[in-house]
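QA checklist item 7 of 12: single-chain prediction sanity check.
[x] sequence parsed
[x] length recorded as 463
[x] structure emitted
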Amino acid sequence: MNVLKRQHGLFVAVCFVVGFLVGTGIFFLPGRILYEVGGNVTLGVAAWVVGGLMIAPCVYMFSVFAGRYEKMHGFVDYAEAIVGKRFGYLAGWFFAVMYQPAGYAIIAWITSGFTATLAGMAAGDEVYLPFRFFISAFFMVMAFMMNYLAPKVPVKLNVATTLARMVPLVLMGTVGVVIGLFAANGSSGAAINFIPALSATTQTYTGNANLFAAISATAFAFNGWQASLAFNTEVKNSKRNFPIALMLGFGLIIVIYVLYFIGVTTASPESASLMMQGGGANFAQGTREAFTHVFGRAGNALVFFMIISGLGILNACCLGMSRAMYALARRNTGPMPRRMGELDANTNVPNNSMVMAVGISFLWLFVVFANTMGWFGSFAFSLPDFYNFGFFGLLVPIMLAFFFKRTDLHWAKRFVFPLLAAVGAGFMFTTYWLGSWRHASVYAGLFTILAIIGMFYYIKNKG
């Protein structure tokens, strides 16, 4: 089997991390978090900070792993080296079948919603959902074709769209904070008080807040750095550069997200009131209202940034998930390992692995469509919650195994940070049970079923 080439420097590695983190979710999640905390911006900021701090030790530990273990697809490398080959395979199967293809589908679905808005459609229109389904499928096919036919273009596109996605976040995180908070508190020089500022803005603050639901929602916004691990063996001097890229990229995003949340939720009474009505369409429209209030007509261009962000992260997802089945095949596991392990002679890309990943992602797109159509009845299946639930569940044994096995490390790296990471991952995992045990039970059951299917291929190939 051929091996993927080392071709990316530190800057591109940072763009991979940030590019996977900054997707379309950040443009509607502030509204959801504001809604979950009952309009209390202070609790909203706390949700972002706690969510980031819970995940930060995990990111740090993966930066430690990146400096020690390297084979193919970082997450699988670390799970395999620290816990064992069976667990490593399960982690790789999770990324190949659940995490990355599901993320590909949900990003395409969200981007199609922004496209429908740009086309003048409303959520109640008869053709709204069918239009979104076919546009989502179109975006997924286009991203796949570009990665399949011109693999050098997606890497350059990822860098360009990452920088473009940062523009609206940085602008609202600076200008929006000044306009929103100081306007709400007056210009008398008094200290800024988040709660009165927002309650006066929304006129709907009740004090009812579900902080656990808000924290678990931030997991979607902080989600994505895991996918960048697939490129660990394609970064030059990766044992040095990849850990730096992980920590630098994640730290930058925490700061920008907190500032952006404050700016976009306190920008105007109309936008905050719209967000407080709940629902994805209102969250996105509230964000658009906030940008229009702060930047005037130029704020209407936000929808273009939303679509660019969606297409950028969709491209990044296709890049990442194309390596998933390939990583299993390099270990002679998974379905059709000889076929999945092949690299194109001209492009050095695992095309067979990419084709299978895209095929699986279309199954997840159907699940998203069915859920939105109400085919699951009163049960609202959240695809991002499902794959984040599985990811944090897998993190805990990795951190604990590292804690017990690595006797050669400094006490902080062996005891403190692995335990903090295990606690953080365990806390994020538990928030799903605290938020809704019914949903968490379904997610756990589905994860188990898919894991059993995956183990069939593991036993088959090892037998």
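[x] summary fact logged: The CA atoms of residues 182 and 247 lie 32 Å apart.
[ ] second reviewer sign-off
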